[in-house]
Design brief:
four-stranded antiparallel β-sheet, 12 strands
Length: 617
């Protein structure tokens, strides 16, 4: 059971990838505490540094509120002494009490206003900082290479945007100012205590080492468990996201019970770590609070003895025991905020670890310049590549495609057909060899320019939330409505679009859940048709449509491919008969190449596949 839990955690949480298999290896420690708390705090504070004016105003309001609280407490000393003085006439004492109550009301109103304004200022600062963190995180994720997304679960990424960033926001909203306010309160209270009675102050200070030792012991435990809690939460979120997205597959294979069991393991592990984190975070307040009560009782007892001996006044004792309790309160509040801070630091380390990953820049070399346009003359020269160093997927691939030619790839699943097109886009960089377009090495072309000149239709469709018109226009954002409609007609999508409830203004729901698989693919093909890219890649583009629709698409595609260099990956060999050249791949190597008729005449692998003597497996 423990081994199965460990396997699930490694699969669904990159923070557990310290073994070196995951993309976040060596950046997070699943079982340990935050490694770089000081650097993490400094980095969080850098996001609020741009709001120095608001922070200064919040600090001023905090000082005003603290001063009002301390002054209000001290004003009670003469009031109590006056009331306790039997020699003063009763009427004078009442008038003095009424006057001082007015003074107290004014002081506390100033304190309330300071607290309100401080809270308002800090909420604005914290929300602006969180907005910037999310913007930076999203920008980073958008620029990370495809290799990163191959290994990262969507649920764990979402956990960083939601749970981890929310915890940082909670720290900025409450914990940070509470900590600063607590320190200021602590210093201010200590000054007032010394001013009131130095000896009673020394008695109170004796308890500070006890507070410190107790807090340090609890902090060391809670920090470790809060880090583990965040990692376990990411694992659970990753499993939930994958299971919900794959519900159809789960039900087809009747694996509901297995999913429930696996999620139960992750959820139980999360519960265990949350219990430890919340327990050690929660006992901080009660422990320090009870120590404060002991300190308060001892101070009050000794102060009472001093009053009885005439060495101290009653009003002074009253305000001192109030300050004594108030002195412990900031320590208690600071202790209670430690849980929030540890949770935020654990989440922040995960967020910043992701932000620190190496991005896929649009232009690796700032000196690279894009040509005016590309014609689409593509050459692969002795190209070898592997997704991992120990396994080569493509071995010494060489081919060329002239502008306007159609090159087809056929072969067994896993032969490397899709990998060739991934390398053409520089989703991955080749290990050896060279890929050129119009004689220019693709490494010498800016990535954004390269990809603008390659349109792709993938086997796996993906549509975004928005209208049909907007989804097709994704292929070229500056296209007019007329150009979008023309592209839809090219892809044979116009007829079904017009039959939708709102035509081109129909909203796409849940990645196209309100459309059939074939209709979704037609929109993807229309999106590629709209692009003016001179190179077109069709990766099983018609695999999800019926034979009748496929014939419509092929006619549109023939018009589309007439002026483009086209690479086609297909299992239906009937769709590649008119290709200028057909490449037969097996085990990452081109074993046959030529036209349809040439390959049939060879009576080799292609002949066997086409005549049905062999199957693509």
């Amino acid at each position: 059971m423990a081994r199965k839990l460990e396997t699930l955690q490694k699969q669904y949480n990159s923070a557990v990838a310290a073994s070196g298999r995951g993309p976040m290896a060596a950046t997070n420690n699943f079982k340990g505490k935050p490694k770089h708390s000081r650097d993490t705090i400094r980095r969080i504070l850098s996001y609020v540094a741009g709001f120095k004016g608001r922070l200064a105003m919040a600090m001023l309001c905090m000082l005003l509120s603290t001063a009002a609280s301390l002054a209000g407490g001290y004003v009670l000393r003469p009031v109590i002494n006056n009331i306790a003085d039997a020699a003063t006439p009763a009427g004078d004492r009442v008038r003095y009490l009424a006057m001082m109550l007015g003074v107290l009301a004014a002081i506390y109103l100033v304190g309330v206003f300071g607290t309100w304004l401080q809270s308002k200022m800090m909420i604005g600062v914290s929300r602006s900082a969180i907005q910037k963190i999310r913007d930076d995180l999203f920008t980073k994720v958008e620029r990370l290479p495809l290799r990163f997304h191959d290994n990262e679960t969507t649920g764990d990424l979402m956990s960083r945007f939601t749970n981890d960033v929310d915890n940082i926001g909670l720290m900025l909203d409450q914990a940070m100012m509470s900590m600063v306010s607590g320190v200021i309160n602590l210093i201010g209270t200590l000054v007032m205590m010394v001013y009131t009675n130095i000896w009673l102050t020394l008695i109170t200070l004796v308890f500070i080492p006890i507070f410190t030792l107790a807090s340090r012991g609890i902090i060391s435990k809670s920090r470790k468990y809060y880090s583990a809690q965040q990692a376990a939460l990411g694992a659970a979120n990753g499993y939930i996201e994958e299971s919900v997205a794959g519900q159809k597959v789960v039900k087809v294979f009747n694996h509901e019970a297995e999913c429930e069991e696996e999620f139960g393991l992750l959820n139980d592990d999360l519960r265990h770590k949350q219990m430890n984190a919340m327990f050690f975070g929660g006992i901080m307040g009660p422990v320090t609070g009870n120590l404060a009560q002991v300190s308060y009782a001892l101070t009050a007892g000794i102060g009472g003895v001093l009053c009885a001996l005439g060495r101290f006044d009653v009003g002074g004792l009253a305000i001192f025991v109030n300050y004594s309790r108030q002195f412990a309160r900031p320590i208690n509040e600071i202790s209670q905020q430690m849980a929030t801070i540890f949770s935020a630091l654990a989440g922040a380390e995960r967020v910043f670890a992701l932000m620190d990953r190496e991005v896929e820049t649009a232009n690796d070399d700032p000196n690279l310049k894009a040509p005016e346009k590309l014609e689409g003359h593509v050459i692969l020269d002795d190209v070898s590549f592997g997704y991992v160093p120990e396994k080569t997927v493509l071995k010494h691939i060489s081919l060329y495609a002239k502008p306007g030619q159609k090159i087809a790839f056929v072969g067994s699943t896993g032969a490397g057909k899709t990998t060739v097109t991934n390398l053409l886009n520089r989703f991955y960089d080749i290990d050896s060899g060279k890929i050129t377009i119009d004689g220019i090495d693709i490494k010498d072309l800016p990535r954004d320019f390269l990809r603008k000149n390659i349109a792709m239709v993938l086997q796996d469709t993906h549509l975004f939330s928005g209208t049909v018109m907007e989804n097709i226009r994704y292929g070229r954002l500056d296209a007019t409505d007329e150009e979008v409609i023309a592209a839809a007609k090219t892809a044979s999508a116009d007829s079904f679009i017009r039959r939708l409830s709102d035509g081109y203004n129909t909203m796409i729901e849940g990645d196209g859940a309100n459309l059939s698989q074939g209709q979704r693919q037609l929109l993807n093909i229309a999106r590629a048709a709209l692009s003016k890219a001179p190179i077109l890649v069709l990766d099983e583009a018609t695999s999800s449509v019926d034979t009748r629709t496929e014939r419509h698409i092929e006619r549109g595609m023939d018009r589309l491919m007439a002026e483009r260099t086209t690479f086609v990956i297909a299992h239906r060999l009937s769709t590649v008969r008119n290709a200028a050249a057909i490449m037969v791949l097996e085990n990452g190597e081109i074993i046959e190449r030529g036209s349809h008729d040439d390959l049939l005449a060879m009576k080799g692998r292609y002949y066997e596949l086409y005549t049905g003597k062999s199957e693509l497996t």
